[in-house]
Amino acid sequence: MPIRMPDPPQPKDISGYDDALLAEMYRRMALIRNFEQKVNELFLKGIMPGTIHLALGQEATTVGACLALQPDDVITLTHRGHGQALAKGVTARALMAELFGKETGCCKGKGGSLHVGDLSEGALPAIAIVGASSPIAAGMAFAFKRHKTGQVALNFFGEGTANKGDWHEALNLAAIWKLPVIFLCENNLYGVSTHVTEVMAVDTVAERASAYGMPGMTIYGNDPIPVYDQVRQAAQRARDGEGPTLIECLTYRRSGHKRLEHVYA
Question: How is 13-29 classified by DSSP, letter by letter?
Answer without folding.
Answer: P-TTS-HHHHHHHHHHH
